[in-house]
Amino acid sequence: MKRLIIPLLAPLALLATAATSVSAEELNLYSARHYQTDEALYANFTKQTGIRINRIEAKEDELLERIRNEGAASPADIFITVDAARLAKADELGLFAPVKSKVLESRIPANLRSADWFAFSTRARVIIHNKDAVKSADVQDYEDLAKPAMKGKVCMRSGSHPYNLSLMSALIAHLGEQKAEEWAKGVVANFARAPKGGDTDQIKAVAAGECGVAVSNTYYLARLMRSDKPEDRKVMEKIAIVWPNQKSFGAHINISGGGMLKTAQHKEAAVKFLEYLASDEAQGYFADGNNEWPVVSSVAAKNPALEAMGKFRADALPVATLAKNTAIAQKVYDRAGWR
Length: 339
Ligand code: FE
Known about the structure:
D-Maltodextrin-Binding Protein, domain 2; alpha+beta; 339 residues; 8 strands; disordered N terminus; 2 domains; 8-stranded mixed β-sheet; binds fe (iii) ion; 47% helix
């Protein structure tokens, strides 16, 4: 059946491309996001503006490499990725062009943007623990993970991963480099195993009891909560989530965001697209696509998993500061032996 449909549709698709490429403006988007809800997001933008989106999707670090390698000849207009550390890297390499936009400035909080890039959704890095092995009261703050009481209980992913680099960057900003390093050493001394795997691997290891406590980005937890697989929901039954540092600086948050590239050929369309991502309609899609929170405060995420997690106090540190501290953060982890 499928074999029959392809030859029938192919000429139509060609016709459609030919018809639109004559008159329509276009935009080349390099995106590290690949969620089904993003399809609707892009389709709506094209419907509203007539600007066609050509999308190149790849893993975060690969995209950045690609843009670097393409140099001045890069067709990319917009780069969208996750984590302030990666946006900062692109910024450091001088890939972004500054964008002045009243819309972006008024809708995106000042701590969630720089002159060159903008956050469009946020995620928190929370403490998770096995309900049977660790009490919530004992792991209220990131600092608790370094205390002797957690000896042999802590699981972590690599210290060189952007998520942990950004967390360390925040700790450096709040505690100072020396205390942050003492923290890293304390956590390393508490490792249940050498760092390995991604956030979901830490979650599963905590559920299985291999570790008592770990940290994870919230969208991985939300994904398991919303999963169709009973075994995923069982994982979540074993686990409790703690919003860290609610009595001090708040839970560490990171972002998904993007900016316009210096080499952009379609500058006007690029700014229109960034502004569109901050619109009420796009904010809901953008954030929900990866179970994140919208950055525009008037937009509520209609997402049962996020609602189930409840409200929390987020760290108000400018995400640009996270980006600035990344290089020191790596050195701190190296000195602490957090591979
Ligand atoms: Fe992730």
